[in-house]
């Protein structure tokens, strides 16, 4: 599980807005997001936003689409099944490959 970040100290509404902004910008423009948060009264560095985006990208993308498609759990299981059928390997390798497939599935 990713470590706690300064993003977690934001009010839930701003966290939701930040996730939406990250989706809208293709998980880029971290300096702009940092400036936006500063205008909202929170000093969060672009590096902290980048770390948060990197650690949570798949979950953010999946959350955006769960209303009309497979749940994140179902998607993860399917990606793990596909990864294991393509190249049986160690558990760590399978998890890494499944995560890469999941990022592809939920890519904006």
What does this structure look like?
The protein is mainly alpha-helical. It is 68% helix and 0% strand. The longest helix is centred in the middle third of the chain and has 20 residues. 19% of the residues are buried.
What keywords describe this structure?
68% helix, 108 residues, 5 helices, single chain, 0% strand, elongated, mainly alpha
Q: Helices, strands, pairings?
A:
Layout: H1 12-24, H2 30-39, H3 46-65, H4 72-86, H5 91-105
Helix pairs in contact: 1-3, 2-3, 4-5
Compute the separation of the termini in Å. Answer: 23 Å
How much of the sequence is in beta strands?
Answer: under 5%
Number of strands: 0
Structural shape: elongated
Number of helices: 5
Poorly predicted ranges (pLDDT <50, ≥5 residues)? Answer: none
Order of helices and strands: HHHHH
Quaternary structure: single chain
Class by SSE composition: mainly alpha
Mean of the pLDDT scores? 81
Percent of residues in helices comes to: 55-70%
Radius of gyration computed on alpha carbons: 16 Å
Biggest sheet statistics? none
Task: Offer a concise description of the structure.
68% of the residues lie in helices and 0% in strands.
């Amino acid at each position: 599980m990713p470590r706690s970040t300064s993003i977690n100290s934001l009010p839930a509404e701003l966290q939701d807005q930040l996730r939406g902004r990250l989706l809208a910008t293709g998980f880029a423009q971290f300096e702009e997001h940092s400036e936006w948060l500063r205008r909202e009264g929170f000093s969060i560095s672009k590096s902290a936003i980048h770390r948060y985006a990197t650690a949570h990208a798949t979950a953010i993308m999946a959350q955006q689409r769960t209303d009309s498609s497979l749940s994140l759990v179902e998607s993860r299981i399917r990606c793990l099944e596909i990864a294991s059928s393509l190249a049986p390997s160690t558990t760590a390798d399978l998890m890494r490959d499944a995560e890469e497939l999941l990022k592809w599935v939920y890519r904006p």
